[in-house]
């Protein structure tokens, strides 16, 4: 079937990034984060690639995601990256074998009961809230944590926290989070098993704070080759994995003063050439890129003009010094000639994050997997 937009995922680039990160973080272990259908890249297609490239563990959020990984990779360690509902725990303990993140006494007691009932402890990672403010035990809840560690139905395999500002210019608050975490780790040293995995780092921290990587890093963005911080360039070895392209549907010449698109919010201020493409927010190209998006045609940057509609977007190609024709390739995200448009750049233009663009493009279109 012919599709108007091609969202391509490069398995080789994904594997390359994981191999690079694997070497970079050793001897720490690498948890490849593949929640939200591998950030829109496709869990089913990429989980085996991650395993092959050296992932020690795969991070997910939901039971259906865990079930996909379990089916494809029976022996893989699966870590849930959030707390869960009691029904999720029931299923996980019965059949999925997820290493659960636990951030409250109530959740710990629930899992303890499940572990005792089946006669084998449930592997859990204790989640500490050192400053993210969403979930987890507070660092001062030492007695509760000690009680959790003593529960016979639990096997404490990890002690973890999540960093709120590892991508920020100023790493002070991140250092404060890491200090709070480390103090608690010391307090609990005699309570925790000797082989417990201590982990704190997401992509940005993994790349920016190499000395404090701990026993395991949980890396999502960097595996998909997207920028992890506006304050820090990714190592050049990390390659983008997803690209999006389409083709010119119509080329039109219009006089100065012509209104373009819904609401007539853009009017040509000169005699113009407008290229129309068969892609809009129905294909995951954000409506918010109205008068802000940039695409590549013939290796040149061309601006989106007028409203992005559901399935059509208009581009100003007046300044192109080369002819543009029906069917010419248009790169929405990716490389063409010597130019590049990235998810990060487009996300910055409407105060979003690259992951949101990856997700929309990946979920709203058929994906192809070609290197
Ligand atoms: C999503 C997630 C990560 C990965 O974050 P990136 O910035 O994409 O590397 C790490 N840890 C936890 C707990 C997460 O939920």
Protein model, in words:
With 371 residues, the protein is an alpha/beta fold. The chain has 2 domains: 10-224, Alanine racemase (TIM Barrel, Alpha-Beta Barrel), CATH 3.20.20; 242-369, Beta Barrel (Lyase, Ornithine Decarboxylase, Chain A, domain 1). It has 11 helices and 20 strands. It has an 8-stranded parallel barrel with strand order 2-3-4-5-6-7-8-9, surrounded by 7 helices. Strands 1, 10, 15, 16, 18, 19 and 20 form a 7-stranded mixed sheet that branches. Strand 18 and strand 19 form a beta hairpin. Helix 1 packs across helix 3 and helix 3 (43-52) crosses helix 4 (63-72). The longest helix is centred in the middle third of the chain and has 16 residues, at 172-187. Bound molecules: pyridoxal-5'-phosphate (PLP). Pyridoxal-5'-phosphate binds at residues 33, 35, 81, 162, 202-203, 218-221.
TL;DR of this structure?
This protein has 371 residues and is α/β, with parallel strands linked by helices. The protein has helices at 11-25, 35-39, 43-52, 63-72, 86-96, 105-118, 142-149, 172-187, 203-208, 343-349, 354-364; strands spanning 5-9, 29-33, 57-60, 77-80, 98-102, 122-128, 154-161, 197-201, 216-219, 242-247, 250-254, 259-260, 266-267, 272-277, 294-297, 300-303, 313-316, 329-336, 339-341, 367-369.
Give me some keywords for this one.
371 residues, alpha/beta, TIM Barrel, Lyase, Ornithine Decarboxylase, Chain A, domain 1, 2 domains, eight-stranded parallel beta barrel, seven-stranded mixed β-sheet, 20 strands, 30% helix, 25% strand, elongated, binds pyridoxal-5'-phosphate
